[in-house]
Every structure is written in structure tokens, then in C-alpha cells.
Amino acid sequence: MSLADPSTNALLVRGVSRHFNGLVAVEDVSLTIAIGERRAILGANGAGKTTLFDLIAGDIPVSQGRIEFHGEDITNQSVANRVARGLRRTYQMARIFPQLTVLENLIIAIIGVSKQHFGLGLIGQNDVRRQQAMALAERIGVEAFAELKAETLSHGQRRQLELAMALAGDPKVLLFDEPAAGLSPLERIKLTEVIKSLSRDITLVMIEHDMEIALGVCDQVSVLNWGRLIAEGSPEQISQNQMVHDIYLGRKQRDDA
Amino acid sequence: MSRADIILLASVALLLFLLPAISSEFFISQIATRVLILGIIALSLAFLAQEIGIISLAQVMIAGIAGYAIALMSQNSAGLGVEMPLVVAVVGAILAAGLAGILMGIVAQRSTGIYAIMITLATSVAFTLFARQNYQIFNGFDGLAGITAPTLGSIQLSETYHFYFLCVIGSLAVLMFTLYLRKTPLGLAFQALRDDRQRLAALGFRPQRTVVVAFGLVGLIAGVGGILLTWFNTRIAPTSIGLDVTLDVLIVAIIGGIGHPIGAFIGALVFVLLETFASDLIDRDRFNTLIGAVFLIVILLSPGGLIGFGRRVVERIPMLQTIVDFITRTKREE
Amino acid sequence: MTLFFVVTLNGLSLAALYFIAASGFSLVFGVMRVVNMAHGSLILLGAYVAFDIAEWSGSWVLGALAGSLAAALAGVLLQVLFFNRMAGSKDQQTLVSIAVSIIAADLMLAHWGGLTYQLNLPSLLEGSIGLPLLGVNYAKIRIVLIVAAIAVGVGLWLLIAKTNLGRLIRAGVDDQEMLHALGFNVKGLFIAVFALGGALAGFAGVVAATALSVAPGTDVQFLLAALIVVIVGGMGSIGGAAIGAILVGLSEQYGLVYAPTYGIVFTFIIMIGVLGLRPQGLFGRGDVG
Ligand SMILES: Nc1ncnc2c1ncn2[C@@H]1O[C@H](COP(=O)(O)OP(=O)(O)OP(=O)(O)O)[C@@H](O)[C@H]1O
Ligand SMILES: [Mg+2]
Fold first, then answer.
1. CB C109 within 8 A of CB B294
2. Which of B123, B247, B293 is opposite residue C98, by nearest beta carbon?
3. Hey, what CATH topology would domain A1-86+171-257 get?
4. pLDDT tens for residues C140-180?
5. Are C100 and B110 in contact (CB < 8 Å)?
6. What are phi and psi of A168, to 5 degrees?
């Protein structure tokens, strides 16, 4: 598989930068991510990982650079257009709709990727959307809470719910922002299973501090530091990279303190 | 609609239809009818606040637009407009309100919170001033008078009891509409939008369009209220939609509580009762002080309004809670 | 041509009045993110009190001081009694201020009745002066009004540019904990801001009662003007309030002369136009909502 061939690229990020009033959050980052690839994004706190996701998803505009999705320029496309093309994301702090039930959260995700944003038909007990939502809930393991308000969920459950929402419809590229953070060991195993079970038509880009998960499921790793891409390679290469080690060891110590 | 809602609606409907049998004509025409009309208009405000989290002070203006529309499409004292068949006039007036709602929504689509309050208020006051100065369409300060509820076959809708039943039907219709809407894709999108607008966009929605549609739908509700109001008063004028009326409707919605559509009608009941019997309590001229104080107390002590207060009372008193649980659960198991 | 200039001057003097009315409203919002819908009531209160005291003492200056002071006190009361207790919910604060404005309007009606009040001009400001190039006489008070607005604007600008309080406003610190961490007496600061905002409202009332006249309904009229001015100019921005006031004042006066029926429509179209392009107003920060 040649990474240079544009027809096989799920995401192409070219020289993307983002500044916040002089603060450089992302600086001249380029990524080439092939269809079906599992890519981990690593980096210390504040390295710019989440901002990079914001840029790819269209939640904030780029200051500079170009983003292509399956060969199409999406740099100036609306978020809705990107979602319609198959781009999905989760947030570092899981963002769900607290006043809706778990099932309704999933139904709204399914409606979002359908053409029925203004649908006026009743969503009955046997509605296909409800069944799809239930299937998603089961897949992620939150079906037991289906009828509860999402605000009652634990931290880890919210994260799982949000992940399930990202799987609604027919996703092509998934951006997961620290999906394992705050999950119990059991939930982590479930998460790893879910990720491993994803179809290889789906491309996954994942920010993750849990090395076991990040290096366990990903084929390629990109490392950000102070907004810049400083290393890229296979998990083996990256785990032996001295610079990455330093940054991560530094981070670990900060976290422990 | 949940089981609990169906039971609630059925009891309300029963009560409203039986009311004439147990109350005076004065109560029906001066209290019950006014409560229903005020409730419908307040519901359009409360529903928007409840479902998409935006307080619109333009709802009375929108009701007024329906009022002017029905007046212009009926026989009126000023001889303005064109008389239309009843169906055309009614449907046209409701659609005019829906369109006004959509336009208001387009203006306010990017605004939330206090900004939305300010913009809708400014729009509404500007419209009223405009209507007061325009004589070609709105007949200026005097407005349009002589608009009576129509006669359907042999039923004279302007007659007290007939008009009351018309208002009952209108109220039940908008109540059912709002309760139904909650269980549709659009209704879900409204609630999600209220929780987190940007998140909804990240799911593929265009939240601003959803906001515009919401304004359009509550415009329809306000339109129903506006037509009934105009028939009730037999006139529509800038004073019918002035700032004081807008604030009255806001007070009604907030006092009732925006947790459930029925709250608007409860708020309207409290308001009309206070208005009617205030003179027994305090100087008739100081009604605004009284209602303002009630409003203030409700906001400070029970932000959820009377509905929220009722809920808390039920939760505090185990027996009531058991009864409520019993009614709703046994029905759910059928 | 002369007409055009006179109308422009009229527009600017109206803008001056609107600016003074909107500045206190915008200031309070800028610091505390409170939309004080009772601002119009403070304006009317200032005017009424000024009238009473001026009648009693025979001095416009004393009346003006008393009017501003009364409104400042009322502003402080609002903060201490209500806003202070519900720092969290902005919508709730707005609703409370609406409730207060309803009650205040009614109580003021009870006390001062439905009459129209006008403050007598201090003799210094009576009469008119010849405008050099135009060869027309123009009421002194209107010129003074423009000067007063500029003074208020410059004063606020100095406050914002040169003082700690100003630094906060510019930084947009509306987070109480943050303020506390920076070593501010938060309560005192907020009370001071409300006092200043109230005083500006009271002064606006004095000016309105002197240059025009006031009556029940003046509160709503000026609240609406302040709302539109800050929606157009941007909440919390003094420069924005100035630009907004000029736009609204001019459009109202041009409208009055050139299209009498539809003056309000011009103002409104400006508001809609600005909102379409910049929901946060011309000079507002990005955080709409
Ligand atoms: N909206 C914003 N406004 C201003 N600065 C921002 C904004 N968003 C991010 N930043 C800054 O950009 C830098 C990168 O932040 P980002 O959240 O992308 O880092 P991250 O790699 O995801 O860190 P973490 O591991 O803590 O999640 C940080 O310095 C952050 O403070
Ligand atoms: Mg991050």
C-alpha cells in the first residue's frame, strides 16, 4: 500500500497551523493517513492534539494549511458537510446530551447522519432508528442504561456512549480523543475489543495516553510537541525513540506529582 | 407522549369540557376563556424555552401578526384588507404567524441566552411602533376593530360557550402538538440543541436551521392564540401587542414553569385569577406591582415555576409520590 | 443642505443621549455579564428625583447630582439584593431585572403619576447659539449634550484604559474565582460597578428630562434604545456603544425627517444588518450567548 497515492488516503493534512492570539497551538503539521489505518497521536499536555482534531473536524477553522478527506478538499467545508462525508469525532471531555436518555442520544446521532433532521414522524417502539440505536448500545455495552437520562451515567459510561454515537450511520474516519481516559479496567478491555472489531474500511485516528491501548491497536504513531510533528513511525520505532521517551517520561513525572 | 401525559391530557380535557356545567357564565367568558388564550400564547414562549432553551419575547408580536392577518382577511371597521373565505383566512393567518416566526428565527438564529432575549424584545417593540405609525395596513393607533368570531353553519362561534369550546379545542390541539413533537426526530433535535448546540453540529446537524424551524413552529402556536385573542377582543391594535402584554406573557410562562407544556396554562390561570380578583387584595391600579412581585418571588424561590414547585412537593411527600407512581406505572404495564 | 446639517446635528445630540443611556448598561454587562433590564427604570428614577430636588432647591446642579445619586443607590440595591445572590444563571438575572422593572414602573407611576416632567434649563444653557458656517441658530443644550456625551465617553475610556478595573474589563474577566485569585474584593468591585452604571443611568435621566421630557414609558423607550445601541455596537464595548448610538441616533432623525412613518424601521434594519454580519455586534467579543 503506497501512502503517496492520494486515492488510498483517508486523511491528508498539509501544513496545517492554528494560532490563538499569538499562541501557537498547532504549527505546520502534515499527516498522511491511509484508508483503514489505525493511527495514534501522542504528545504531552498542551501539545496541540485536541486542537488538531478540532481543525480536522471543522469545529474551528485553520489559520493555515489544507485538509483533504478521501481525496476531497474539506478545509473550508462546514462541520455538517464533513459529517455527511463520514467524518466523526469524540471529545476529550465526553460531550453527550445530558437531558436526553442514552437511547435518545444514540437516536439523535443516527438522525444526524440521516436526511431527517426535521422529521415529524413519531419515533415509536419498533422504529428502525430505535432498533439501530439499541444495536449500537449493545455493541458498546451501554444497553443496560438505555432508558436512563445520560446525566446519570458515570464518566466512563459517558465516554462509551459518545463513542457509540460516533459509530452511528456509516463512518469512514473516526477521530477519538482519549477514549480510554477515565475508563475502568473492564471498560478498557471492552473498548479495545470494540476498536479491534471495527471494519478495516474505517480509518481510526486516536489520541491516547494509555500506551498499552495506543500501541496495541495502532499501526502508526505520530508524535506532537509544542504544536509540531516531531516523530512518526511504527509503535516499535516510536517506543524506542529517545526524544519521545524524554517527553513522555517528563509527562509521567508531571502527572505523578 | 408518555402514559402520564396522556392521562394528564385526558383529565384536563374532561375538566375543561365539564367546566360550563359547574361554573357561571362570567367565569367561562372572563376567566376560563382568557386563561386558555393566554395559555396558548404563553405556551409558544414556554415551549421554545423548554425545548431549545431560548426565551423569545417576540411571541406576542407573532400572535399579533396572526391577529392582524385574520382581521385583514375578514370584515373590519377600517375597511382595510380583503375579505376571504373563513378557511383561507384562518389558515392564512396561522401561516403568516409561522412565517413571522421563521423570520424572527433567521434574525436570532445565532444568538442564545440574553442576546436572544434582547433581540426578540427589540424586534417586538419595533414592530409595535411600526404598526402604530402605519395606517395603510395596520390602521395605526386604532388598529382594526369589529372582528367577530365566524359562524359555522348554525353555530355562532362568538357566543360565549361556543367560543369557550373553540378555545378548549385550540388549547388541547397545541398541547398535543407540543407533546407529540417531543418524540419526533425534530423534537429530539430541539432538546439536543438546548443541551449543546455545537455538539449537535458535530453530529451532522445545522443547528441554526433547527433554530429557525423551532421559531416557525412556535410561531404557528402563537398564531392560533393570536386569532383567538383577536376574536375574543373583536379587535387588534398596537396596544394588544405592546410591551406590557409581552411581559404579561413572559410572566405567565415563567410563573407556570417551563418544564411541561401544561405549565403555561397553570401560569395563565394564576395570572387571570390575580388580575380578576386583585382589586379585593390591593388597590386595583397597583396590579402591576402585585404581578411583578409574584413574578419576582417565583424566579427567586422556584426557578422551575409552579410546575417545578409541584414536582418538588410530590417528591417530598411519599404518599403523593406513591400515588403518582402507581397511576403511571400500572398504566405503563398494560 | 442646511436642513441636512441640522438634522445631522439633531441626530448626533440624540446619539449623545443614547450613548449616555447605553454606556452604564454596557459597562455593567462588560464587567459582570449582567443584562440589567431595569436600566430604563434607573434612568426614569434619576429624572424624577432630579426634578423633585431641582424644584425644591431651585438648583439644576443639585437636582442632577441627586438624580444620579438616587439611581446609583438603586443600582447598588439591585446588586446587593438580587444579582449578588445568583451569580450563576444569566437568564435568571435577566428575568429578575425584568420583574424589578415592572414593579419599579408601577411604583413610580403611583408616586409621580402619569404627568410629563421637564427640568428647567440652568440659565447658562438656555437659548441658542449661531452656528458659524451654516448661519442658523442652534439650541445650546443640544451642543452641551454632545459635549457631555464626549466627556462621559472619555471618562469611561480613561477608566478602562488606565485603571485596574479597566484592565479587567478588557480582559473580560467575569469569573469570580479568577477575580478573587487576582486579589480583588469581588463584592466591592461589583457594587462599585453597579453604582457607576446606576449613576450613568441617573445622569442620562437628568439629561433626558432637561433636553426633552420624561413620563411613564420613558424607561421603556430608553431601555430599548440602550438595547439596540449595544446590540449594534457590541455588548460591553464603550467604543461600540458610541458607534451604535451614532448609528441609531442618526437613523432615527433622518427617518423622522425623510420618512416619518418608517423611522423605527431604519433603526431596526441597521440592527438586523449588523446581527447578520456580526452576531456579537460591531465591537463585541466573540462569545455570543
Ligand atoms: N480555544 C482556545 N483558545 C486559546 N488557546 C487554546 C484554545 N484551545 C487550545 N488552546 C491552547 O492550545 C494549546 C494546545 O491545546 P490542546 O488542547 O490542543 O492540547 P492537547 O495536546 O490536546 O493537550 P491535552 O493532552 O492536555 O489534552 C494549549 O496551550 C491550549 O491552552
Ligand atoms: Mg487534548
1. no
2. B247
3. Rossmann fold (3.40.50)
4. 888 888 999 999 999 988 887 888 777 766 665 556 667 67
5. no
6. -60, 150
